[in-house]
Design a protein that fits this description.
Layout lengths: L1 E5 L3 E6 L2 E4 L13 H22 L3 E3 L5 E2 L8 E3 L5 H11 L4 H4 L2 E3 L4 E2 L4 E2 L8 E3 L1 E7 L15 E8 L2 E2 L5 H4 L6 E2 L4 E3 L10 E6 L2 E7 L7 H11 L7 E3 L7 E2 L5 E6 L5 E5 L3
Parallel strand pairs: 6-18, 8-14, 9-21
Antiparallel strand pairs: 1-2, 1-5, 1-15, 2-3, 3-4, 6-7, 10-13, 10-19, 11-12, 11-18, 12-15, 16-17, 16-20, 20-21
The structure holds manganese (II) ion.
Length: 277
């Protein structure tokens, strides 16, 4: 299922170019900003109701007529993988020297940096180089603590395109990647049952219609199960937490007014605009 959050934090399932309102499958008392997490928590028991709503198609709106929010309300954390494709590791050598995921393992992005497709990316330090990084994002479906690689995919709720916007420079990654608007995600989450194996997904990113990144998640250094094993060993991954799996070669800088398009196989395309000057 393709799940979105829209307008005043309503929950929807996308079918073609329409969205079916499925807000009613979570308790009415759920705070608006907690609805997606509530849906994920209850998914095994509310999935049938959601599917029935889709089949009935009672409350349907054209996708073009709604405002899409980041599909997740604030996660407790966004854990991100640095230099997780060999070809990106190689291209970064000139810029920052050799770095390996085996050394750096992971970093945190502020949850407040997350935005949906109908918001703009803003460049807080316009005199500094700011890059796009196209990534496969995954959403954790239930608390994961010391999960083995073999069991890891059981803890994934779904997948979504994710941009890890980055100011280049000497500051800590958490500072350079946590600016407001620096984690665009969506437009929706595709539930994991539709993607049994997150390895082997093609990933392409265009900047103003010029193809800049063209890769496959089969080339991840640490694949999705390994990332979950490594991160859940030291921190409990909570329901609705997000993992950014890393970016392949082809990162580059953005400027005011630019348009970024990220297309990952089996996922809805994420298109974002950088705020004009
Ligand atoms: Mn990244």
């Amino acid at each position: 299922m393709h799940l979105v959050r829209f307008d005043d934090s309503r929950l929807g399932a996308v079918v073609g170019d329409e969205v079916v309102d499925i807000t009613h499958v979570v308790p009415e008392s759920t705070p608006a900003d907690g609805r997606m997490r509530a849906l994920i928590n209850a998914w095994p028991s509310v999935r049938d109701a959601a599917e029935q709503a889709v089949t009935a198609g009672v409350t349907v709106t054209a996708l073009a007529d709604v405002t899409l929010l980041a599909p997740l309300d604030a996660p407790t954390k966004i854990v991100a993988a640095p230099v997780n494709y060999r070809d990106h590791t190689a291209e970064m050598v000139d810029l920052v020297g050799e770095q390996l995921i085996e050394t750096y393992k992971g970093f945190l992005k502020a949850p407040s940096s997350m935005i949906g497709p109908d918001m703009l990316i803003r460049l807080p330090l316009p005199d500094r180089r700011t890059d796009y990084e196209g990534e496969l994002g995954l959403v954790i479906g239930r608390p994961a603590r010391s999960v083995s690689r073999a069991d890891a995919l059981d803890y994934v709720f779904g997948y979504m395109p994710l941009l890890d916007m980055t100011i280049r420079g000497d500051e800590d990654r958490s500072f350079r990647k946590s600016a407001d608007t620096f984690t665009p995600v969506g437009p929706g989450i595709i539930t994991a049952d539709e993607i049994p194996d997150p390895a082997g997904l093609s990933l392409r990113l265009w900047l103003n219609d010029e193809l800049r990144q063209d890769a496959n998640t089969a080339d991840l250094v640490w694949d999705v199960p390994m990332l979950i094993e490594a991160y859940s060993r030291v921190m409990t991954l909570q329901t609705g937490d997000v993992i950014a799996t890393g970016t392949p070669a082809g990162v580059g800088e953005v400027h005011p007014g630019d348009r970024i398009r990220l297309s990952i196989e089996h996922l809805p395309e994420l298109e974002m605009h950088v705020e004009p000057a």
